[in-house]
């Protein structure tokens, strides 16, 4: 008999249908990988593995899910991604152990009615299907904390069933057809992370400002022109991603973002940074590249926790010496501006690991060139990665 790999069993992992059929120690297997087996149905051999915790049936042609899978009473993760489940018989039986299910890439326009029997589900992945709204079936699944609905056809309206997912903590709606964020978003009081990236949103609904636990807000690649005051006052917000929008200015109310640690503000049309940015004492990463900045406020020097600062592709004429007062700075990018000088004092940033400044019209005489060369060599010898063509 063909022997199964000892290492696979020692880790509780088994790969392939043939190995599953030949397995002589099914009780030792906790993870079974039957992906890419060209399966049209769930093989009966699966039921041999009574202690199975994770079952991967992705990238097959499965059209039916039998209720008898509920006999696997240790199963916590079920991967049915990239199959052919749409419009076919999906019969989930009552299950008290399954916590994670992956149904992406199945052309689903609605959820299987029997999904409501999986009452312990905590994470559902429905990316890349044909859903047009939040599935109402989710109202039966009160323990779902993570819901992925990326790359569908969802258009949120005032009638979208937000009440069906009130307990959700992480909600991803990236790359849908969303043009507005309804007031009903305020019903998601447990939400800690939400992403509306890559949609067609023109305005941020102030109702988001009523979410008391929100830590991460993703609005990347929309058509947003301003940040409402209510966003600045979110008490627990740590990360705001508003890359690739049409924002011209930031309000002085930015000072109220006392929990913010990461600000993604790049690829907008921002012409000025308010001096109140210096009040963001917890800020660790600030991305401002590809805007229309000609200078930065002196108060930037107050960001004593800052580790990453990207100011490249703006219109800076003078090197912002405030940067030299940032003791924890690790990553500095000032490339592609209009800088004539770069100070030798950059070498005093002892935590610096990345320094990029090419694409500036640096003007130096022979003595200054020698100093610039020495600066770069000092940084490189310290292990700093740079883009300078002056590296020896």
Report a brief summary of the structure.
The protein is elongated and about 80 Å long.
What descriptive keywords fit this protein?
4 helices; Leucine-rich repeat, LRR (right-handed beta-alpha superhelix); elongated
Structure in words:
The protein has 392 residues and is mostly beta strands. The protein is 8% helix and 13% strand. The protein contains 4 helices and 17 strands. It has helices at residues 6-10, 17-22, 229-232, 366-381, and strands spanning 13-15, 31-33, 54-56, 77-79, 100-102, 123-125, 146-148, 170-172, 193-195, 216-218, 239-241, 262-264, 285-287, 308-310, 331-333, 354-356, 385-386. It starts with 5 loop residues before the first helix and ends in a 6-residue tail after the last strand.
- How would a crystallographer describe the biggest sheet? 17 strands, parallel
Which CATH architecture of the domain at 14-130 would you pick?
A: Alpha-Beta Horseshoe
Radius of gyration: 27 Å
Approximate strand percentage = 5-15%
What is the fold-level CATH name, i.e. the topology of the domain at 14-130?
Leucine-rich repeat, LRR (right-handed beta-alpha superhelix)
Assigned CATH superfamily of the domain at 14-130? Ribonuclease Inhibitor
How many helices? The count is: 4
**Number of beta strands:** 17
**Structural class by helix and strand composition:** mainly beta
End-to-end gap = 63 Å
The H/E string reads HEHEEEEEEEEEHEEEEEEHE
What gross morphology would you assign? elongated
Mean pLDDT: 94
């Amino acid at each position: 008999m063909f022997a199964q790999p000892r290492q696979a069993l020692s880790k509780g992992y088994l790969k392939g249908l043939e190995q599953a059929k030949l397995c002589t120690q099914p009780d030792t297997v906790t993870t079974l990988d039957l992906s890419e087996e060209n399966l049209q149905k769930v093989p009966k051999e699966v039921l041999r593995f009574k202690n199975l915790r994770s079952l991967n049936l992705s990238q097959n042609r499965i059209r039916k899910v039998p209720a008898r899978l509920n006999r696997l009473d240790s199963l916590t993760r079920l991967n049915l991604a990239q199959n052919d489940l749409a419009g076919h018989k999906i019969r989930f039986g009552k299950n008290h152990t399954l916590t994670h299910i992956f149904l992406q890439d199945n052309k689903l326009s609605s959820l299987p009615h029997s999904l409501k029997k999986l009452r312990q589900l905590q994470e559902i992945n429905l990316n890349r299907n044909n859903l047009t709204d939040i599935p109402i079936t989710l109202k039966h699944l009160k323990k779902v904390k993570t819901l992925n609905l990326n790359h569908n056809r969802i258009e949120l309206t005032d009638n979208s069933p937000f009440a069906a997912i009130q307990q959700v903590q992480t909600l991803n709606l990236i790359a849908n057809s969303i043009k507005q964020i309804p007031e009903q978003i305020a019903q998601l009081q447990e939400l800690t992370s939400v992403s509306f990236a890559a949609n067609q949103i023109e305005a941020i609904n102030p109702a988001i400002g009523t979410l008391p636990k929100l830590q991460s807000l993703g609005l990347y690649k929309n058509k947003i022109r301003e940040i409402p005051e209510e966003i600045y006052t979110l008490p627990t917000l740590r990360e705001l991603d508003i890359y690739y929008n049409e924002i011209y200015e930031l309000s002085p109310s930015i000072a109220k973002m006392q929990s913010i640690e990461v600000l993604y503000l790049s690829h907008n049309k921002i012409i000025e940074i308010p001096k109140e940015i210096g009040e963001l004492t917890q800020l660790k990463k600030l991305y401002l590249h590809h805007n229309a900045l000609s200078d930065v406020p002196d108060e930037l020097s107050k960001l004593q926790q800052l580790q990453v600062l990207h100011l490249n592709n703006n219109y800076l004429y003078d090197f912002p010496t405030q940067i030299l007062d940032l003791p924890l700075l690790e990553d500095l990018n000032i490339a592609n501006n209009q800088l004539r000088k770069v100070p030798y004092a950059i070498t005093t940033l002892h935590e610096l690991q990345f320094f990029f400044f090419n694409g500036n019209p640096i003007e130096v005489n022979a003595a200054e060139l020698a100093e610039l060369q020495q600066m770069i060599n000092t940084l490189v010898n310290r292990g700093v990665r740079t883009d300078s063509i002056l590296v020896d």
